[in-house]
Design goal:
- The complex is a heterodimer of chains A (about 350) and B (about 300).
- Chain A is built from 13 helices and no strands.
- Chain A is mainly α and about 350 residues long.
- The radius of gyration of chain A is 24 Å and the shape is globular.
- Chain B is an all-alpha fold.
- Chain B has a single domain, classed as Orthogonal Bundle (MetI-like fold).
- In chain B, about 70% of the residues lie in helices and about 0% in strands.
- Chain B is built from 12 helices and no strands.
- In chain B, helix 7 packs across helix 8 and helix 8 packs antiparallel against helix 10.
- The chains are: A mainly alpha (about 350), B mainly alpha (about 300).
- At the A-B interface, helix 1, helix 6, helix 7, helix 11 and helix 12 of A face helix 6, helix 7, helix 10, helix 11 and helix 12 of B.
Chain lengths: ~350, ~300
């Protein structure tokens, strides 16, 4: 949705091949967008009513110490110079130091991010494996009970506060039925016994062959991941349905039917084949949305990911961490947007 | 009936040939209403919303208790316990009364955002579309930048900078919600700009400000309204999310998201404290979604996705 018109090209000259030109245009757009993101976070850091110097040195420092740190942080320089320094730092992966944890924000984020990635990936997988068939079937059987059901499921998904649904899930599946494990990534007994490889516990425990940890981690992740999966299912199935409807009403489908092909072949071999690229675009966007949706989910499930990192830092007035986290999520969001846009441009012959 | 004056209001509204401008406008509104009325899901949404608005307006009359009065002897009592229809929360406050007052906060937030964000979008979009050239490029690039961000995370960062509170939450949500409106307003402006009647007004000597505010804005309104209704549910959910994180309305304010956050600690033993405000949020955003779908069909017949 975000980049529909983001990559508009000028008139193409005769010398440069259009593909290069498109690529250059896209890269320029990415650069400008990311610079804008940095500008916004920079300005947020500026208007914040917390004195950045005091945050570093504490309330009881002398005026001389204050002035020294003030100069060291470059706060005496013009805003535009400060912004330049800020951009330079961020490009080198330096988001400053976290006041809360005392560590470099970049290291903090590198540590917590795999947990979010694991959750969002599993959520997207669930959304895709349920949402795509649901969308296809409700397009083929338009108006049938399954179509109504898909619509209903989507409507509920769009109207439900995700954090509340998470609480209800915990109440029912953990509190009452006891079929899944509670909040957290893994039981305390298993905590820290798997040597990290990717940082994603499900994958790491498999690599190390520790299947009991895998089982335990799975029983922890399945509820929050299903929850996120439900939200992406609502989006993916609705988009799949409208893409399929468009294909099914076109003439080549009628031709295929007249030829006497089976319904299965018409739907999956002909119509579905033509929506694959559109679908990947949608899935990339759903994935980006889940990274964002995981912020509230992580709070509910005490999931040690980037969402929880941002919100705990926020409540501790730790702005470096908040802005660092915002930049990381924002950059991934932009990257996924651009990726789906590029995919569409290069693989769909109609858009050329 | 054909030659005489239409006798009933209905006949006047459905007249084949309206005799005044007022009648024509009323007739088109009425026909829109008839279409909307045929959509029973939208009617359900409208009914839920009307009910919630009434609850918010008459909260002092309907409430059985003071929503802020603590009664520590009667903490966490289940629904139906001694006149507390929905039970009491961790400070012994009546959940039913808090819900009623909370409806005021939710509607207040939604109305404010629904006025601020489209207005900002309308101004930016029409300027970009009407002036064109570099102004257009720069304004639309800014819009794209805001569109490319995750909304909740950006709102979080804004609230972090501005400080927690309802007004700041409204500001943060509006700051992240305006770009789609700017896009729509720009697209409408581009089609209107080159039409003959704008050229005619310009020849009569109207300046750009007059053309934009008096002749372009009115035509952008209906597509903006559709979009706003469809966005209302999202606004409610974002506001509740901020409240849940402790960044929206501050305690002891009975904001629904904050109420869920309070009840979260007791979810396994005292389920109603968090469940009931959540149902309220669900009801209001479902209602906006249902109504929005119907309104889209009425106001924007070619629309949909």
């Amino acid at each position: 949705m975000a980049t529909q018109s983001a990559t508009r090209n000028g008139r193409s000259g005769p010398a440069i091949p259009p593909v290069i030109k498109k690529l250059a245009g896209t890269l320029a757009t990415v650069a400008v967008t990311l610079l804008g993101l940095l500008f916004v976070t920079f300005m947020i850091g500026r208007v914040m009513p917390i004195d950045p110097v005091l945050a570093v040195i504490g309330e009881r420092a002398t005026q001389a110490q204050y002035d020294a740190v003030y100069l060291e942080m470059g706060l005496d320089k013009p805003l535009i110079v400060q912004f330049g320094i800020y951009v330079g730092d961020v490009i080198q992966g330096d988001f400053g130091r976290s006041i809360r944890t005392g560590q470099r924000v970049a290291e903090d984020i590198a540590r917590v991010f795999p947990a979010t990635l694991e959750l969002a990936t599993l959520g997207t997988l669930i959304g895709v494996f349920l949402g795509v068939p649901l969308g296809v079937i409700s397009a083929v059987r338009r108006g049938s009970w399954i179509d109504q059901l898909a619509r209903f499921v989507g409507l509920i998904g769009y109207s439900m506060p995700i954090f509340w649904l998470g609480l209800m899930g915990l109440l029912i599946f953990y509190g009452i039925l006891g079929v899944v494990a509670g909040p957290g990534r893994v039981d305390i007994f298993y905590d820290g016994i798997v040597e990290p490889v990717t940082g994603m516990l499900l994958i790491d425990s498999l690599i190390r062959g520790q299947f009991d940890v895998f089982q335990n981690a799975f029983s922890h992740i399945i509820l929050p991941a299903s929850l996120l999966g439900y939200f992406s299912l609502a989006y993916i199935s609705r988009m799949t349905r409208s893409f399929m409807l468009e294909q099914l009403s076109s003439e080549y489908v009628t031709t295929a039917r007249v030829k006497g092909l089976s319904e299965w072949k018409v739907v999956w071999r002909h119509a579905f084949r033509n929506i694959r690229i559109q679908l990947i675009t949608v899935i990339a966007l759903a994935y980006a949305n889940l990274l964002e949706g995981s912020v509230l989910t992580e709070i509910i499930f005490a999931w040690p990911g980037i969402g929880q990192y941002i919100t705990t830092s926020l409540l501790a007035n730790d702005m470096n961490s908040v802005l660092g986290g915002t930049i990381v999520i924002g950059t991934i969001f932009v990257a996924l947007n651009i990726f789906s846009d590029l995919l569409y441009r290069f693989f769909d012959p109609r858009s050329k | 009936m054909s030659m005489t004056e239409p006798s009933t209001l209905r006949a006047w509204l459905l007249a084949e040939e309206p005799t005044s401008r007022r009648q024509a406008r009323a007739a088109s509104l009425y026909q829109g209403w008839l279409t909307l009325r045929g959509n029973w899901l939208s009617m359900i949404g409208l009914a839920i919303l009307a009910f919630l608005v009434l609850c918010a307006i008459f909260a002092p009359l309907l409430a059985t208790d003071n929503p802020f009065a603590q009664d520590l002897a009667n903490r966490l009592k289940p629904p139906g316990w001694e006149g507390h229809i929905f039970g009491t929360d961790s400070l012994g406050r009546d959940i039913y009364s808090r819900l009623l007052y909370g409806a005021r906060i939710s509607l207040y937030i939604v109305l404010l955002v629904a006025m601020v964000a489209p207005l900002v979008g309308l101004i930016i979009g029409t300027i970009a579309g009407y002036v064109g050239g570099w102004t257009d490029t720069i304004l639309m690039r800014i819009t794209d930048i805001f569109l490319a961000f995750p909304r909740l995370v950006l709102a979080l960062a804004f609230v972090a900078a501005l400080g927690a509170g309802i007004e700041n939450a409204v500001l943060a949500i509006s700051l992240t919600a305006w770009p789609p409106y700017a896009r729509i307003a720009r697209a409408e402006t581009l089609t209107i700009r080159s039409s003959d009647y704008i050229a005619a007004i310009r020849l009569q000597g109207a300046g750009p400000v007059r053309i934009v505010t008096r002749h372009i804005w009115p035509l952008c309104i209906s597509s903006l309204i559709v979009r706003v209704t469809l966005d209302m549910a999202g606004i409610i959910l974002t506001a509740a999310g901020l409240g849940f994180l402790g960044l929206g309305a501050q305690p002891p304010s009975p904001e629904w998201g904050a109420m869920i956050s309070e009840g979260r600690k007791y979810i396994l033993d005292y389920w109603w404290v968090a469940t009931i405000p959540g149902l309220a949020i669900f009801a209001i955003s479902l209602a906006f979604n249902l109504l929005g779908d119907g309104l889209r069909d009425v106001l924007d017949p070619k629309g949909g996705e």
